[in-house]
Amino acid sequence: MSAATVTTPTPSPLRRRALGVAAAVVAPLAVWTIGALAGVDYTVESPGQPATVIGAGAIVMIALGAALLGWAALALLERFASRVARPVWISLAIVVTVLSFVPVLSVEATGGAKLALGATHVAVAVALIALLPRPRR
Predict the structure, then answer these.
(1) What is the per-residue pLDDT for 13?
(2) 68-73: which pairs have CB atoms within 8 A and are 24 or more residues apart?
(3) What is the CA radius of gyration of the chain?
(4) What pLDDT is recorded for position 134?
(5) 127: closest CA among 77, 75, 64?
(6) What are the helix and strand counts (H, E) for the chain?
(7) What are the strands, taking DSSP E only, across 41-90?
(8) What pLDDT, on the 0 to 100 scale, is given for residue 78?
(9) In this predicted structure, what is the pLDDT of residue 89?
(10) Measured distance between the N- and C-terminal CA atoms of the chain, rounded to whole angstroms
């Protein structure tokens, strides 16, 4: 009897990263939608600014922008520091995620809105960290 080697096809890096960007947009939109269905009031008020309602469009645009910037940063790191690109990028992603909570905590909003909006930040980070860097070998 001979042993057969089973290989599972791995998606190309471009496909994997495009999937990561898509997941980084869909995940926070799902969190926002669940919050909206639960009755969360997404009205936020920054000091000196009029009240703003954070809608689905804002969630999509901000998540897409963050995902594309994350992809660009990773590509630059891989180009100029390929040996340390993955750990440096993941560390950078975590720092940016933590810093992204500053605006959430500094605005006037309901507790539910702050919780849901903070969860959208985490959803973007999880999708990007899981899918953008090359898997470990």
Answers:
(1) 85
(2) 68/21, 70/24, 70/96, 70/128, 70/132, 71/17, 71/20, 71/21, 71/132
(3) 18
(4) 83
(5) 64
(6) 5, 2
(7) 43-44, 52-53
(8) 95
(9) 97
(10) 29
Helix then strand then coil, in percent of the chain rounded to 5, is: 65, 5, 30
- CA dihedral 15→16→17→20, nearest 10 degrees, is 120
Residues of the chain with pLDDT under 50: none
Contact by Cβ (8 Å): 117, 104: yes
| Structure tokens belonging to residue 102 | 């500053």
Q: Containing H/E element for 75?
A: helix 56-80
Q: Which residue has the tokens 């999509």?
A: 60
pLDDT of res. 92: 97
Own/partner contacts of 87-93, CB < 8 Å, gap of 24 or more, are: 89/132, 89/133, 90/129, 90/133, 93/125, 93/128, 93/129
What is the model's pTM?
0.88
Q: Which residues fall within 8 angstroms of residue 90, CB to CB, at 6 or more apart?
A: 129, 133
